[in-house]
Structures are given as structure tokens and as C-alpha cells.
Design a protein that fits this description.
71 residues, mainly alpha, single chain
């Protein structure tokens, strides 16, 4: 089984990278606007996890030899 795809075609990993980056930005915004520190810490933790998931997807895309578009 080969893992070659059309370079113009967006893979699931590519879609997930964009999703997790948007989710991290949303959670960072919620953390900055949180009224209570414990809520802000929870949002910050979730944002960090979202960034790590985006990084993992980016690594899988790089392993395929695909570059991420800077959107």
C-alpha cells in the first residue's frame, strides 16, 4: 500500500491540523476572557492539547512529504 496522494488534495491529517489550530486559538481566547482562574487553566490545558494534536498531524503530513499551506 502506498501513501502517495495528489499534492493538491487535502488529506484528513491536513484538515485536522487546521481544525486543531482553530480550536487552540478559540480556547486561548476563552482562557483570556475567563472570569475564574481555574476555568482559565482548564481552557489553557485544552489549548495546549489541541496544539500538540495539530503538531502530530503536521508531522504525519511532513512524513508524507507534504508541506502545510500557511493559511
Amino acid at each position: 500500500m502506498t501513501d502517495e496522494t495528489d499534492p493538491k488534495r487535502l488529506t484528513l491529517d491536513g484538515q485536522l491540523v487546521k481544525y486543531w489550530e482553530r480550536e487552540a486559538a478559540r480556547l486561548d481566547d476563552l482562557a483570556s476572557r475567563a472570569m475564574f482562574k481555574w476555568a482559565a487553566r482548564g481552557y489553557a490545558r485544552k489549548a495546549a492539547r489541541a496544539r500538540s494534536l495539530a503538531m502530530a498531524g503536521r508531522a504525519r503530513e511532513a512524513a508524507r512529504g507534504r508541506k502545510q499551506d500557511p493559511d
